[in-house]
What does this fold into?
Amino acid sequence: GFAPGERLGASPGAPSACVGLPLTGATPLQSEVVHPDDDVLLIGTSAALTELDALLDRACTGEVTVAVLEGPAGIGKSTLLRRFRHRHPDVTAVAVSGLPWERSCAGALLERLIVAEGADVGSDRETGGWDAATVGAALARRWDESAREKPLVVTIDDAQHADPASLQAVVSAVARLHGAQFLLLLARGTGPDGGG
It folds into this structure.
């Protein structure tokens, strides 16, 4: 786990700002029927949204920023990410989620990320014609171009279910960004089943 505000990735090439935001105090309000797109009210999310807003402000100054949100299943990580994206319609937002059944499919999350962004970074995972570093470099060029015009927020929900090759490509891309208005938010479930 990560301590609140803990700086992650202090190695060379790491993003300028990389923090962990554990979510432990929020409790979802119970409701009979909740549509997945509804803004469910969660107790304790305003402080987390304020922290995410501050990270976006930092990214808007050209400081590439990464945050990991951790918490058990049902705590509200997905809703928090959705509410954050809705609060900032002026940014370019790209959202994908890890899927447990794709964890062993190298490049599956990356492929959906590329499609969600409407980009082509030259990946050909079907034939094994790509590697994380090469695709990461191409993704970095695309993100850099996009994040120069206006802030780019990429959210990866259920990151614990993402395939390792895709996460490696994302990390390779982020490590190549410098001076871009870029914020990467990874939500990761904790607990015996990895959360959800």
Q: What stands out?
A: The beta strands are 17-22, 27-28, 42-43, 65-72, 92-97, 152-157, 182-190. Residues 1-14, 24-43 have pLDDT under 50 and may be disordered.
